[in-house]
Amino acid sequence: MNLYMPTKVFSEHHCVSNHRDEFKMLGKKAMIVTGKHSSRNNGSLDDVKEALAKNGQEYVIFDDMEENPSVETVVKATKAAVEEGVDFFFAIGGGSPMDASKAISLLSRNPEKLDHALEFLYTFQRADYYPVVAVPTTCGTGSEVTPYSVLTIHSRRTKKSIAHRIFPEIALMDARYLKTAGRNTIVNTCVDALGHLIEAFLCTNSNEINKIYAREGLRMWGEFKESLFQNSFSDELLEKYLHTSMLAGIAIAHTSTSIPHGLSYQLTYEKNIAHGRAVGYFLPGFLRIYEDGKRVEEVLNCLGFSAKEEFQEYIEKLIGKPEVTRAEWMKNVDTMMNQPEKLKNHPFPMTRDTLCKMLTV
Ligand SMILES: [Zn+2]
Question: How far is the CA of 196 from the centre of ligand 1 (A)?
């Protein structure tokens, strides 16, 4: 049994300005890592800039962060951070800026490793990093409370988390920032959180502590599941989505993810399918092939479904079916069979045949 979740979490409207004292001591100059548009539209970037200015802390902005950040982009941002003398990071956005910021904080603290960045990031060793403050503006990744930093590795045509575990120092969660996210983003990210909850609950590393978070997250997800068919979302719903995503993050912080995430990365890389949606495609099949019926039943009960078929119907109604050919699917299966860490996190022997049964195409 283990529990280690060192991130300080504040969740309320205006929490960036309410808790600016918390990050006043973290450093002299921040790099704000974000995308081009959403943090400008939802007000989060202005709030962070204002709070830093009031604290008398300098900042530079790196807003060139793409979806599914690559090692190359992380290196580019690191060079800018080192040149500017940055000593802490603010990640604003979804999983992409948050995951990237963790890797940038590590590399910029160890700039001599820049020439061998890929090797350094993907080899576990003790190394210092600068503090990261995470401000999530979507409701799926949970990256604000996890130590993971999933990056795209073009040379391997896939995504993978770096070997280092870097928890953000502080997570500032203000559901107002979700207001300008479109329905697609809300649905995709909520389904990502669902994947985290189900995988955390059913994987080998699952234990009684992380199951507490997963169970409560699944129950909350079950409560709001029909609301995801709406076109607009109340403040109360956005708050629930954000909290459920955080619970799911804490649950996977202890266990990592398993088969559906392992299968999803290829789909995202090769077909440019949003991460949460790609994970969601594999969830009904995962419950179908999972060998412990009692545990699957508990997941379904928490979510308010009476049978696996009902869950499958719901997911297909929400996100549709994956558009993959048989050949693409077989390639995906082969790649998955070469991911020992994900296979190990499935508590039953996994064969190629079983993986094939997860999807009927
Ligand atoms: Zn995920």
Answer: 6
Span from the CA of 55 to the centroid of ligand 1 (angstroms): 34
For residue 277, report the distance from its CA to the centre of ligand 1, in Å: 10
Model confidence pLDDT, tens digit, residues 298-343: 999 999 999 999 999 999 999 999 888 888 888 889 888 988 888 9
Give the number of residues written for the chain. 361
CA nearest to 267, candidates 359, 141, 205: 359
Q: What is the pLDDT of residue 217?
A: 98
- Write down which residue in 157, 177, 197 finishes a domain: 177
Contact 318, 229 (CB under 8 A): yes
Residues 107, 209 share a domain: no
Residues near ligand 1 ion, CB 5 Å cutoff? 192
- Residue 67 lies inside a defined structural domain of this protein: yes
Residue 34's pLDDT band (boundaries 50, 70, 90)?
very high
CA 32 to the chain's CA centroid: 19
